[in-house]
Amino acid sequence: MTAASSLPDSAIRIRGLTKTYAGSKKAPPKEALKGIDLDIPRGTMFGLLGPNGAGKSTLINILAGVVKKTSGEVSIWGRDIDTRPRDARAALGVVPQEIVADVFFTPRESLEVQAGFYGVPADERRSDALLAALGLSDKANAYVRALSGGMKRRLMVAKALVHAPPVLILDEPTAGVDVELRRQLWEYVRRLNAEGVTILLTTHYLEEAQELCDTIAIVNRGQVVACEPTPQLLRRLDTRNVVVSPETPMATPPVLEGFEVTPRSGGAFSVTYRKGRSSVEQVLAAVRAAGVTIADISTEDPDLEDVFLALTYGDDAQGDPTKD
Ligand SMILES: Nc1ncnc2c1ncn2[C@@H]1O[C@H](COP(=O)(O)OP(=O)(O)OP(=O)(O)O)[C@@H](O)[C@H]1O
Fold first, then answer.
1. At what angle do helices 107-117 and 149-160 cross, to 10 degrees?
2. pLDDT tens-digit series, residues 218-236
3. Which of 42, 77, 112, 285 has the fewest beta carbons under 10 Å from its own?
4. What are the pocket residues of ligand 1 if the criterion is a CB atom closer than 6 Å to any ligand atom?
5. Is domain 238-317 given the CATH code 3.30.70.1560 in the classification?
6. In the chain, what are the domain boundaries?
7. Atom of ligand 1 minimally distant from the CA of 222
8. Which residue of 19, 20, 21 sits with most ligand 1 atoms within 8 Å of its CB, as the best mutation to test the pocket?
């Protein structure tokens, strides 16, 4: 057991976490999280990646204390969210997906109110330092409704940091954000991380996660399908698609042993292969061997859906003797 004075190895520790949303007359109950185990090491920049509806927001809302879990254990900075909810929340700053603007306050007032909410004593408040760090000093006394969308978003980052939490969650922080703001935001987040703040970032974008995060967990349909150091995960995701248009359009694409085949519009189909394991040449040979005459081909890099397919496919294929 760790001594009370030492820092936890895991900034966030999750075991067997499930969440089922109650159903209604119109909708059946929804099992949004199906038993999540996750350790987010202290000091890391951790990416939580998944498509729409994967369960990312549910997970984050449970951490933030706004959604009640169905079962499982969660601790933040070594503090159990069931037995020490206030302490657990105090260790966490959350920048939500949606911009929530306090229209009646100036940015400085907004930070002061938030600091008051967390019980930060007046002499420990750092509103001006945060405004400066996020490039909002000259807007300190402006009305929030006069700020641009990007400024409001930066103000939300500042608000999440008023109580100097050791763990910061950024939920889809760059959705709808322009390139320049994205760059500034990442620069600041990297600086925070270098100062020791553990960062948990959720995103739809593999590119964003791979650029920023040292570890990436992929969630799909309420389950963690991968959790690895970024370089290791990227090696596993080394997939490409070959899109084949046959001479005669095919309503049902051929079955190609060792490859994932997906129908495309117009009687075409795509074949997903691992660059490290196969080549376009081998894909084409397999297509021809299946009796297909090729009219045209193109290649494309995978999107997130293909990544999930590749990951799940890889798992299914493990130990499969037919696979070379
Ligand atoms: N309050 C709710 N009641 C019922 N079902 C819900 C509720 N909130 C979320 N869900 C369902 O739970 C599943 C997970 O949703 P969640 O919002 O956690 O996913 P997500 O990965 O955050 O997606 P997004 O990227 O779109 O925010 C989805 O099928 C969603 O429809």
1. 30
2. 998 899 988 999 888 877 7
3. 285
4. 21, 30, 32, 50, 52-58
5. yes
6. 10-234, 238-317
7. 14
8. 21
Nearest to 239 by CA among 308, 172, 163: 308
For residue 100, the CA-to-ligand 1 centroid distance in Å is 19
pLDDT score of 1 more than 50: no
Query: What is the pLDDT, as a whole number, of residue 5?
Result: 58
> Could you report the predicted ipTM of this complex, rounded to two decimals?
0.96
The pLDDT tens digits of the residues spanning 170-221 come to: 998 776 677 887 888 889 999 999 999 999 999 887 778 888 999 999 998 8
Distance (angstroms) between ligand 1 centre and the Cα of 104 equals: 31
Do the beta carbons of residue 55 and residue 103 sit within 8 Å?
Answer: no
Question: If DSSP codes are grouped into helix, strand and coil, which group holds residue 128?
Answer: helix
Q: Is there a common fold for 10-234 and 238-317?
A: no
Class for the domain spanning 10-234: alpha beta
> With contact defined as beta carbons under 8 Å apart, do 248 and 291 qualify?
no
Tokens of 141: 């006394």
